[in-house]
Amino acid sequence: MTKTLIKAPYKADHVGSFLRPERLKRARLQKQNGEISAEQLRLIENEEIIRLVKKQKEVGLQAVTDGELRRAWWHFDFLSGLEGVEFIETEKGLQFNGVETRAHGVKVTGKIDFDNHPMLEDYKFLHSIAGDHVAKFTIPSPNMLIARGQGIGEVYDSHEEFVGDLIHAYQKAVQDFYNAGCRYLQLDDTSWASLFSEQGRDKLKKDGHDPETIAQTYARAINESIANKPEDMVITMHICRGNFQSTYTSSGGYDAASEIIFGGLQVDGLFLEFDDERSGGFEPLRHVKRDDIQIVLGLITSKFGKLEDPEKIKARIKEANQYVSLDQLCLSPQCGFASTEEGNRLTDDQQWDKVRHVIRIANDVWQ
Fold it and tell me: Where are the domains of the chain?
């Protein structure tokens, strides 16, 4: 029997996270204060995810996510669910253009593995309510533990051994999510952004790292993690420059790492930030050599509520088409609406207006 390939990423797609409903925010505080149980919180999460999935279907999205509603962080929640990784309090938070996050992080405390990860159940619930729509699930790239993990040298004698175990864990993750029914998996990754600016590359050098070696390690971690994926599973990657309460951590175009990103990564699609001048131009897309990879242009900002001029967005898609076939281009917001539970600085109505805006423009371009 021939396996049916899904057509994701879609011409009108989205990165994954949505603003947390006020009811859910209250429930999480109640759980934190011991006023409700973990089971009661999960029931509330289930109800809000059901509402969210229904809304995604109503506005016309073809892939639905759980909005990451069960998570506090887009990356730490998943990473701390790996064997050998713990969620920790840190001395200070991450810096975002004048705004600081909560002081949290992850620490490697043992050998890395993937076994009975709690997010498998999260996916199964999403799958059970997706109906005829494709259930898309988002997890952080393995590179995020390479970039953010503390204590690695306390457990591993060599970085090579650590990366090897991490790749093996992600290979198991890909297969386990597939076995749970997942056919559309997205790897979210901010680590590449350190390579985009001269300032970022200088910091890497100051910390004793060679930017080119780092890029090769990141590419290897991605490619080997997904090397055994089933043929009817789509795996995409979202490359981000930071997204916390409508701020960012870094700037710079894709130029410095473009050959390895666009010519060396074996993902099925790339979600790319192109919503403002911080992301540079489309010229790096000239390194796209495969005709089986989809390039999702993040031209609609998720950081602010004002809608972009649709004609200007269409003009930018036409500009990108100079480097990549229109058949290989898609449209989405540049990031999710809530990479952390705090969410970006726009209203719920503005969030959905943005999603509809993506769909309307995509329908005009790829009608």
Answer: 22-365
